[in-house]
Amino acid sequence: MAANSLKIALRQIRKNRLYAFVNISGLTMGIASCLLIGVYILHEFSYDRFHKNADRIVRLTMDYNSGDATNKNASTGTKVGPQFKRTFPEVESFVRTFKYTRVVKYEAQVFEEKSFLYADSSFFQVFSFPLLLGSAASALDAPDKMVVTERTAKKYFGNAEAIGKRMKVGTKDFIISGIAEQPPLNSQMQFDFVASFNALNASKEEKWWEANYITYLLLKPTAEIQTLSRKISAYMQQVGKQELKFPAGNYLTYHLEPLTRVHLYSDLEGFEPNTSITYIYILAAVGLLILLIASVNYTNLATAQSASRTGEIGIRKVMGALRTQVFRQFMMESAITTGIALILSVLVSYLLLPFFNRLSGKEISDRAFLQPASLVLLLLIALFVTISSGTYPAIILSRLRIINILKAGFSFTSRGTQLRKSLIILQFVISVFLIISTIVVLQQLSYIRNKDLGYDKQQILVLPFDNTMLADYGNLKQELLNQPGVHHISAAYEEPVDIGWGDGISKNPDDPQGITVNAIPVDKDFIKTMGMHIIAGMDYTMADEKAMDTSNQGANLRYSYMLNQSAARALGWTPQEAIGKTIYKGTGGIVKAVVKDFHFRSFHNPITPLVIFLDERMAHKIFVKVDAKNITATIQRVERIWKQRVPQRPFEYHFLDEDYANLYKSEQRTAGIFTTFSILAILLACLGLFALTAFSIVQRTKEIGIRKILGANMTNIVSLLSRDFMALVVVGIIIATPLAWYATHRWLQDFSYRINIEWWVFVVAAIVAVVIALVTIAFQAVKAAVGNPVESLRSE
Q1: Is-contact 178 163, C-beta < 8 A?
Q2: Whole-prediction pTM
Q3: Which residues on adjacent β-strands are paired with residue 256?
Q4: What is the dihedral of CA 318, 324, 326, 330, to 10 degrees?
């Protein structure tokens, strides 16, 4: 029986090649899209779950209020980890981590390593990063010990033994005590080196503040996160009153984030940007919508073809076939079609994986398709498609009564016609929804790229800076300024695209409240180099720089500050009133200037108070403003001088606008995915519409022939065949418009600075959908309209 059903199913596919092609190609695209998105989602949900103790590891986040605003930070001070272990019996261990870019030297090899991690000695015991050589318990138990990954060992030592070798990191020597496997791609912590946390000066004193470190706790198996969170809250209230002497309204506390939820659910980034669970839901919805369109195509075509199979069904029933047997036959055909599409989709997914990785910004291996979760997903997709696509046509065809077939043949019921119309509408609802969403996302990204930030991020080279360069910085700066193509040079603690330093200022030293600010130490040319606008006061001068000379610290060291407009406003001053006023940020100083507000965080965050202060000793970055003409030659000249003046550091640079773009990686990925899958959704919808139009024309061939004989011209015929389908497309547009507006409006609420959704977006989307549908329908309609009516009426 099964063999006979298989033979008949394959015969039907050969007989109806056009419809088989449409069904199989549509399902292949739909399943491949769903599979790729599914593998991506599984990868995102797998983050940090490979750790043996993953369910017991939590990340501590800092939550504090200094009188005017609540602040949350993924970083903590050095005290919180050890103090919580001493205080709470639920805490089994802790790990403090600090990721930093370091210059590493071994013999003649010198590299700037961006994945250099400092961690407590418990690191390899709390986290499951396997050591190929060395002991997890002792690999970091001394200040001069360091673990490198297998790839890093190969890079520096080739095939030679790495254990016991000494490497210079900055000005310190470290002994390699272990070789670790490379961290898996689904780990938040990516590192090439792990050095002992005790090598940092910060480890010598435990502090609640100076929050630069990411702290993890390993909880005991019996510990409950909610219970411990309540204990921490109560304990920190006591610390605030007794140890930190907070005034009323101020507080410092910590929250516990399960390690496995950080990547998708936390608003606070750690070692790498998180992925929002919202984008995961969006991707899942897009994948299901694409699959739904493909399934709708199959259902529509299967029901439309039903009329041509009434003779077959009648003969089967006359010969004694039961309704269940007919039902199984058509479900078998659905399963075979799905099976062929499934095999092709796996091949297509494999071939498209490199493109999808570029689109999503991931490095998913093709081995991901063979993981148990992926195979289960593939099976579920196959079942979904087979059942959703085949069930309705099988029910309709199997329940036909033989007496009705013999009397009048099979004709479509109004219910069946309405279903097919509803499915076409659904396809174009999905397509138009994706078109509108894509336009809005691209508009927001364009707004982000082109909005005036309050500074000029273009043609600015970013170079590293450390204490070893401080003594010769003035000479290096002057020599670089003498080069053609170099306009300005400055140094600062961090880049203006994302200033994370949190601080507080007040109007007088006895005011415990003050205001919370972000702060950035700079050299005197920072404002000029960044093209910022001073709206009151004056820029820093050489006199200000001399006043900050470390040799004058024994004398009266004079500080001067710049505020942004928001900071001046928060202190109750106009920009002009602020000039000359004294403010206190640990040390008192005068307000020298007020700069126009600029965006120093992503557009998700509003502009808040900021203090710029002069202190090049704290700089970590050098900024070189170069001419837009002949940038390559200018960079070569900068590199030559760098190698002469800074031989201890390799010449590595990037552009400031690249870091700005990195702030919006998630949005850029969303835009790319939306654009790609919107095109695919439209293609699938048109594919189904093309096949249905072809089938409708076949059904109306004689009617078209009669109309042509009676004088109908091509325009009349095309209009006749297009009218009904275009009405369905218009209905789809009407339904999709409010849904797309609501969804995109909600998405835009995540941005403090965003576009307004304009009316023309919906008009453009509607025109695109109508034109594409009209072209699809007209292609078949014109073919029918130019046909010879004699051929269509020959059998009459």
Answers
A1: yes
A2: 0.80
A3: 60
A4: 180
